[in-house]
Specification:
By secondary structure, the chain is mainly alpha-helical. It is built from ten helices and no strands. 32% of the residues are buried. The structure holds heme C (2 copies). One heme C binds next to α7, α8, α9 and α10.
Length: 250
């Protein structure tokens, strides 16, 4: 009887240990992370720190989320939900529409010391405590804010949403990198599998939300195997985006 209990305990322990190790490996990243990796990981965290860190999310809406906003619950804790894919908050694409936030952007923090930004993230407004965002992840976020932002307005025309890049040049990158997972037409992964009548492919996102597409081309997709092209020249990324805007919607 006792022997059985002990055996059961050991099994339970080793299972939970394995789980912890798996989470740990994902969270920790490389043994000797480079500054570049940290900044890009910060970009993934900005997109969705909950899926990047694989933690169980807060269920209640973020206390700083505006009452006029249309989102609620977990999604209101994502940096992008308040500050936007263009990092401009109320001065950018989120000044109106379904993702209205009315909150200031993070552009003024470019080049600021990491410690200054970390303090902002731990402040009363944000409430990102240790349990939600541990020290290491917090520093990556701060590094992203300081060194990882793209000046979106320079590369994406706000009125036409067109990328100011060369689609033919982007095609070469797309066919040799992105197509491995998304297919040559960009429609092998449907991002909205639950609504089969209105699929969402790279072509869809690149046209509808070029800022989001560019952020993801640079930093990758949280919680997936998607690669990050953050070390390529920004012009290469814009060319890829320009090509992505020509891909089919079906
Ligand atoms: C629910 C909305 C909300 C979310 C989510 C949110 N913020 Fe903020 N953020 C604010 C508000 C409101 C301010 C301005 C007031 C303040 O700091 O007290 C702000 C200010 C900032 C500033 C300072 C900007 C400046 O110029 O002073 C930075 C940097 C920042 N946030 C980064 C982040 C990051 C990184 C995340 C994700 C980990 C995040 N925020 C998530 C609401 C949010
Ligand atoms: C190793 C495989 C892989 C490669 C290479 C890859 N992706 Fe992805 N990508 C994914 C996966 C997986 C997802 C997540 C799909 C999901 O969440 O439904 C994704 C998501 C995306 C999204 C997000 C859509 C959304 O709204 O959530 C965009 C945009 C995207 N990829 C564009 C690209 C582009 C452009 C390239 C080339 C620069 C590329 N991807 C390369 C695997 C890949």
């Amino acid at each position: 009887m006792i022997k059985k209990m002990i055996l059961g305990l050991i099994t339970a322990l080793s299972i939970s240990l394995c789980g912890a190790m798996l989470t740990h490996a994902m969270e920790a990243g490389p043994a000797k992370p480079t500054e570049s990796w940290e900044i890009i990981n910060g970009g993934l965290l900005y997109d969705n720190w909950i899926s990047t860190l694989m933690i169980s999310p807060p269920k209640k809406s973020h206390p700083a989320y505006p009452t006029k906003g249309k989102e609620s619950g977990t999604s209101t804790w994502r940096c992008k939900e308040c500050h936007g894919w263009d990092y401009k908050g109320s001065e950018g694409a989120y000044k109106k529409g379904a993702h209205y936030s009315g909150i200031k952007g993070i552009r003024h923090m470019i080049g600021m010391p990491v410690e200054t930004i970390e303090k902002v993230l731990r402040n009363e407004t944000h409430q990102f405590n240790q349990t939600l965002i541990p020290e290491t992840a917090l520093s990556h976020l701060a590094k992203f804010v300081s060194h990882g932002q793209i000046e979106m307005a320079q590369y994406i025309d706000a009125s036409t949403l067109k990328a100011r890049g060369s689609a033919p040049r982007g095609a070469a990158y797309f066919q040799t990198i992105c197509a491995k997972c998304h297919g040559y037409e960009g429609n092998e992964i449907n991002f909205k599998p639950d609504t089969p009548d209105t699929p969402e492919y790279i072509g869809t996102v690149a046209r509808k939300n070029p800022w989001e597409a560019l952020h993801k081309i640079k930093n990758g997709q949280p919680g997936s195997d998607m690669v990050s092209l953050g070390l390529f020249n920004i012009d290469d990324l814009i060319d890829i985006l320009a090509y992505a805007q020509t891909l089919p919607l079906k």
